Amino acid sequence: MGSGRSGAPRVLLLLIKQGANGLNLTEAQHVVLAEPLLDPAVEAQAVGRVDRIGQRRSTHVHRFVVERTIEENVHRLCQQRAAAMDLSAASIKRGAGGQEKGGLTVRDVALLLRRPDNEEEVMEAEGDGDAELAGQAGQQQQQQRLDPRQAVAAAALRRSGAA
């Protein structure tokens, strides 16, 4: 948080899931996001705790993402979801939008588990490779939404060769 009345800097550390709800922190100026989340709305809500009506100073958001780790993939997926949410919100305002179901797709899990240093694979997976990711033996499966526990289990089975 900004400088206190005594002039010494004050800091308030909160976990994003606990600190993102029900707080107005208009005395703060900086928000530090130390780990990426899959839900861009939670991050936006955490930033919104500081960037409120009554805030007299500009809000600075600092985001840390560890290179060449799964955090890069999580951050990339979060950005894609945020963009999709923006498009969905725009279409709802026009009256043409539906509502997307929550959860991870098989493609989302595959993108999360790819190595960040192999950018070509990531780009291929973002293109037309969905069918290959969903079913390896030439079987075309429809993309399905999984809750996070199912997604992790499916990824573990795929990696072990059991799927």
- Report helical residue fraction: 40-55%
Mean pLDDT: 70
Spatial shape: elongated
The stretches of 5 or more residues where confidence is low (pLDDT under 50) are 96-100, 122-144
Q: In total, how many domains does the architecture comprise? A: 2
Terminal CA distance: 49 Å
Order of helices and strands: HEHEHEHHHEH
Structural class: mainly alpha
Biggest sheet record: 2 strands, parallel
Overview of the structural elements:
The strands form 2 sheets. This protein has a two-stranded parallel sheet with strand order 1-2. Strands 3-4 form a two-stranded antiparallel ribbon. The protein folds into 2 domains: 16-63, no CATH class; 70-160, no CATH class. Helix 4 (106-113) packs across helix 7. It is 44% helix and 7% strand. Mean pLDDT is 70; it is low at 96-100 and 122-144. It starts with 15 loop residues before the first helix and ends with a helix. It has helices spanning 16-19, 40-48, 70-94, 106-113, 119-126, 130-134, 148-160, and strands at 30-33, 60-63, 104-105, 145-146. Helix 2 links the parallel strand 1 and strand 2 (60-63). The protein is mainly alpha-helical and 163 residues long.
